[in-house]
Amino acid sequence: MFQIGLMRGGQLLAEQSPDDLIAAYNASTLEEVFLLLSRRQGDGTTPLVQADTPSQVDSAMDVFENQKHKGVGESKETLVLDDFAELPPTTVSRSHFPEPAEYKDLELTVATTGTPPHPPPIPTKKQNNTRSISYRRYSAVPQRVSSSIIIFPILEISAFFLAIGGQPHGLKFAVVNDELGNYSNCGEYLTQNSANLTWLDEDTCRLGGKLSCQFLEAINDTMGVKVYYDDLDTAIYDLRKGRVTAVIYTARNFSQALQTRLELGSSATDDEIVESQVIISVDTTGKNAISSLYKAPEFHRVSPSTILRSPPVTDLQLSQDLKWRLLRLYLEFAENITIACQRPIKLAHIPIDFKDPVYGEKNPSYTIFMAPGVIVSLVYFLSVSLTSTILLVEKMDGIWGRTLVAGVTSSEVLMSHVISQMVQTFIQMVFILLMSLYVFGFEIRYNFTLAVVLIALQAMAGMTFGFLMSSLCDEIRTANYFSLGIFYPYLLTSGIMWPVEAMPTVLRYISYTMPGTLAIESLRNLIMKDWTLLHPQVFGGFLSSIAYIVVQMALCLLVMKYKKL
């Protein structure tokens, strides 16, 4: 239990815990205790420092006599007593105190003039405590708006949309084209043979020219820069050294073998099939992209096969992106041939027909998958950062103790913090949504209102979690470690970066205990699938968010009561 000191006119009147002072002087509030002690100070005949035992009283009397002879402790303030009734007697032992003569004169005055009027009762609970403290906190908000409320949300959401979801560019491809013969690259071949070059005879459907160049020219500079090599071994060596991203190889008889494959289909020999392939080998490290050897999809009567060899991939997203883009290039190349030969275009496709998706786009960006989770996690942890140390700072600065001494309860102080921080949290949320929707073009297609409400609930859940940490921890450093320590489990297990369905069963159930997992799933379903609030996969996010808010606030109050804050 902490102690307080009551001082007037430069003299310490009493020093004890608030409850002990109120009990010792038989008062209902600390204001009454201070009034009684101020009266005694005006008398100038009684010691004012709290004393409960004879030895303490003797010591207090000695101090009082020394101060009295030196003129110390006499207040120059005038204490007006006409409007106040006499307070109840103190329970402090007065056996060693001299009875002041002024008390007897006061009794005679009261007896002759009657009982003085009673002052209005001093309230023990102030109904406007929470409102007053909240107003004081609001007045400090404009001083912190530029740094803690606006800048960080804008920087973080901008970093996400600018860094995630774009197509890789500036890659470096090593090209080994044995079909070129004496030509150093496809550009030289096309320049020297442009006058009499015929890719396809539409009457006979005979392929002409070097078809490998037609495919390679489809790889434009926005996708990657082509560097031609004379031999495959040198290209593979540079790939292993990290000088290039991938190696693209076409055999000497690529065009002829592809023609044979078109005409004979499954009757073509193994050598003809191998020579008609475009083989692509890529780096297996995250620095230089992806790993795999590909061969082009076969059409006509041969079953398609797209992957020749697939070593472990350390950069999955880049691997899938490059694989998909190269396969699309070859598909367009094959479609052009079938169209020119007046054959069904589906002969160039694999025997799987992907229809348009029921929800979303056919080729969605990875940004669309991550954006709901990133928005929820940002508002959550920005709220945590605002509140995780706020109670600790007030306790260390003494603001908390002075507020409680003024008669405000811990729950009122906490509620004032909730109200003031809620406003700052919602300001951050608004800036995140404005940047996402109007600057970077993220689209909330359905249920805009419900989506905003769910994001606001997650912001409040983060705010209450910060209050809980601030009440549990005794040091700012501990609270910071705790908030940083929970960040990565939240990020990795809440389905932000990867679907929770891909997790092991046990970890998947654990992930559902995280505050953001169900909320992120609900937000995706709201804005992409047009599901209503009554859908179980939407309602669960709202229910879990509200549950976290209520439970964390209750735990915070219990901790404050247990620690007697």
From TrEMBL:
- Domain named ABC transmembrane type-2 is located at 335-563
Q: What does the UniProt keyword field contain?
A: Cell membrane, Membrane, Transmembrane, Transmembrane helix, Transport
Q: Which GO terms describe its cellular component?
A: plasma membrane
Query: Which InterPro entries does this one have?
Result: ABC-2_transporter_component, ABC2_TM, ABC2_TM_bact-type
The UniProt transmembrane annotation reads 369-393, 448-469, 481-500, 538-560
Its localization reads: Cell membrane
Matching entries from PROSITE patterns are given as:
ABC_TM2
- Alphabetized GO MF terms: ABC-type transporter activity
Q: What is its main location?
A: membrane
Superkingdom, natural source: Eukaryota
Membrane topology is: Multi-pass membrane protein
* A Pfam family of this chain: ABC2_membrane_3
Q: Which family is this sequence assigned to?
A: Belongs to the ABC-2 integral membrane protein family.
Q: Which PANTHER family match?
A: MEMBRANE COMPONENT OF ABC TRANSPORTER YHHJ-RELATED, TRANSPORT PERMEASE PROTEIN
The name of this protein is ABC transmembrane type-2 domain-containing protein
